[in-house]
Amino acid sequence: MSSKRILLVEDEEHLLKTIQLNLELEGYAIKTAITGMEALKVFRNNSFDLVVLDVMLPEMNGYDVCEAIRKENTQIPILFLTAKGAGNERIQGLKLGADDYLTKPFNLEELLLRIQILLKRNFFEKKEKTVEVFTFGENEINFFSYEIKGVNQQKVLITKREIALLKLLIERKGQVVPREDILDEVWGIDVYPSSRTIDNYILAFRKYFEKNQKEPLHFLSIRGVGYKFLE
């Protein structure tokens, strides 16, 4: 089972390292940022399950970062950390799409518990939204029967691994899914296919679903980073 991926954004170095260490001890995979602009760059180049976000940041404050993230991803849980405890500050963060709010100084055990609750809630929400048949354009994917209907409108039976990769990309539509995530979640930690192997799967998807395979609209390769699905 893959580690949950958390983006931790905090400009106080000591606090950043303390939180990062405790999260890693809990088994989470952590990437960090110390400015608002860096946070957005890291977010857009990776895939995360949760964002822990300080409000007072250099370059771009946490509220603006939250608002930018919500324009791209409405589902990922966001937990604000801030020294500001006033009610209006809390309301502002929640209005912008934050899921929870913790005021500094805080108890690390409480932070870990809130993160665990947010991740669990998001997991069950995603599970409830799982559909048997997914359609985009004229294309159709049945995740239970492994049947697809592509641009030629003929039903084709594809493999379990192809379905798993399609499901992963579609669940994170609009996001770049790093190659490492695909290896971990689709192939498993004990199997190491080459980059070309994953490319071949993407080429197959384009053959199934793209009207123009040379100019794909749905299945994109992001050089040096990973792959993206657009509906």
Brief characterization of the structure:
This protein is of the alpha/beta class and 231 residues long. The chain has helices spanning 13-25, 36-44, 62-72, 87-95, 108-128, 160-171, 179-187, 195-209; strands at residues 5-9, 29-33, 50-54, 78-82, 100-103, 133-136, 139-142, 147-149, 155-157, 176-178, 219-222, 226-229.
Describe what you observe in this structure.
The structure is a single chain. The protein has 231 residues and is an alpha/beta fold. It folds into two domains: 5-128, Rossmann fold, CATH 3.40.50; 133-229, Winged helix-like DNA-binding domain superfamily/Winged helix DNA-binding domain (Arc Repressor Mutant, subunit A). The protein contains eight helices and twelve strands. The chain has helices at 13-25, 36-44, 62-72, 87-95, 108-128, 160-171, 179-187, 195-209, and strands at 5-9, 29-33, 50-54, 78-82, 100-103, 133-136, 139-142, 147-149, 155-157, 176-178, 219-222, 226-229. The strands form three sheets. A five-stranded parallel sheet has the order 2-1-3-4-5, sandwiched between helices. A hairpin with a 3-residue loop joins strand 11 (219-222) and strand 12 (226-229).
Helix-strand layout with pairing:
Elements lengths: L4 E5 L3 H13 L3 E5 L2 H9 L5 E5 L7 H11 L5 E5 L4 H9 L4 E4 L4 H21 L4 E4 L2 E4 L4 E3 L5 E3 L2 H12 L4 E3 H9 L7 H15 L9 E4 L3 E4 L2
Parallel strand pairs: 1-2, 1-3, 3-4, 4-5
Antiparallel strand pairs: 6-7, 7-8, 8-9, 10-12, 11-12
Helix pairs in contact: 2-3, 6-7
